[in-house]
Amino acid sequence: MITMSLQTALLALQMVAATPPAPEPVTAVCTAPADLRATPLAAWALPDDNRSAIPEIGRPTVLALENGGTSRQIAITEAGRYGIAADGKVWIDVIANAAPVASVGHGHGPACSGIRKIVWFNLPVGTFELALSKAEVARVRLLIVRAP
Prior knowledge:
Layout: H1 6-18, E1 61-64, E2 70-76, E3 80-86, E4 91-96, E5 99-100, E6 105-107, E7 117-123, E8 126-133, E9 139-146
Antiparallel strand pairs: 1-9, 2-8, 3-7, 3-9, 4-5, 4-8, 6-7
């Protein structure tokens, strides 16, 4: 049995009470959507009326996810650097010849844009599989853009 003197117990309580709480994370407060007009992401502001569920370059698409993922074919008609933007927490991969294509960059979208992440790939002309996985949402809004 462990015994503690009253003085030791009070000292321990004072130390715990004196420890400041961890600061709350700072979250941007958006009073208006980000202005994306002068960026490659300008099409993000367009309505997501692509009901074919086949992602097209420069056109927002909403995809339903099953068990946290889905995959679709994408056609690249001009070689270049392409970004795949998503509004939800999801892994984004591009597959060519049954192997993942190495991404060349990733990050978050502009503050207040609604874009949670963007993953960039250097892609040649061809057809690829866009693979989404590990999603924590039931649907994801995507936009595929070619870098200028």
